[in-house]
Amino acid sequence: SQAESGIPAFYGDPPNAHHPWAVHDGNRPQPEVVTPGTFSSQEQPGTPPSDAVILFNGADESNWVSAKDGSPAKWQVNDGLLVVEPKTGDIQTKQQFGDCQLHVEWAEMPDVQGSSQGRGNSGIFLGNQYEVQILDSFDNKTYVDGQAAALYKTKPPLVNACRKPGEWQAYDIIYNAPRFDEHKTIVKPGYITVLHNGGLVQNHTEILGETAYDSPPILKPHGAAPIRLQFHGNPVRFRNIWLREIPEPQPVRP
Ligand code: MG
Fold it and tell me: Ligand 1 centre from 56 Cα, in Å?
């Protein structure tokens, strides 16, 4: 029995993992080898891991289009930075993504202007509709479910980990998209986890629906979607944007 063998009941994969491998099975396939990235400093961005999809590396915004009409993105690319350009609207990736690990670095302008939601507002929309808020929340009070690193209108961050305006900040986001069946019924909730400047601020937060500012979250069926960056009239700067796609779990045994 398990008690006699000393092996805990939940040792290793759970009993509903449909794979044929024994514990410590030498025939189980090895994970892909990747070259890890490097951390960024204030002075310069790090390098992405070798299996990353590069969305912005300082060269150009060719992986992005205007969200409103699909024309080439019209934000500024200056000195290796992607900068929100007045009167241009949101931009979104050409490519569509499902589950992913997304890395985004952003900085507010050092000369503080505006207050509350009007100070350094942008945002990252996972699934093209669930906003992880970007805001200058350093010494800038606003409603807590709309401050930096909030899942907008859904959940405030666990802590306020904002750096001073002008300093580079990082989001590392794990996005698990909600799943819907052929009847457009949700069969698995979606979740968002966020690390802000390396600290956990959203821990597997359940997605309740689209994070429009003026209406309650409503969950609508969708599949892979672009990642969108928000134009909110403030000149937020970005650098070093990349993601790693998370493969769909595949049962090995039918
Ligand atoms: Mg925003």
Answer: 20
Strand ranges for the chain from DSSP E: 53-56, 64-66, 76-78, 81-83, 91-93, 100-107, 122-126, 130-134, 168-176, 179-180, 186-188, 191-196, 199-206, 228-229, 237-245
How distant, in Å, are the alpha carbons of 30, 173, 193 from that of 26?
A: 9, 33, 33
Say what the pLDDT of residue 11 is: 57
Q: Give Cα 125 distance to the centre of its chain.
A: 8
The rounded Å distance from CA 152 to ligand 1 centre is 8
Count of beta carbons in the 10 Å neighbourhood of residue 77:
17
pLDDT tens digits for 112-168? 999 999 999 999 999 999 999 999 999 999 999 999 999 999 999 999 999 999 999
Q: How far is the CA of 148 from the centre of ligand 1 (A)?
A: 8
Least confident stretch, 1-5, 67-71, 159-163, 186-190 = 1-5
Read off φ and ψ for residue 136, nearest 5 degrees.
Answer: -80, 90
Q: What is the DSSP letter of 129?
A: T
**C-alpha of residue 59 to centroid of ligand 1, in Å:** 25
Distance CA 213, CA 232 (A): 12
Mean pLDDT score, 28-39: 96
Q: Ligand 1 centre from 78 Cα, in Å?
A: 22
Question: 166, 186 in Cβ contact below 8 A?
Answer: no
pLDDT at position 1 over 50: no
Q: How remote is the CA of residue 123 from the centroid of ligand 1, in Å?
A: 4
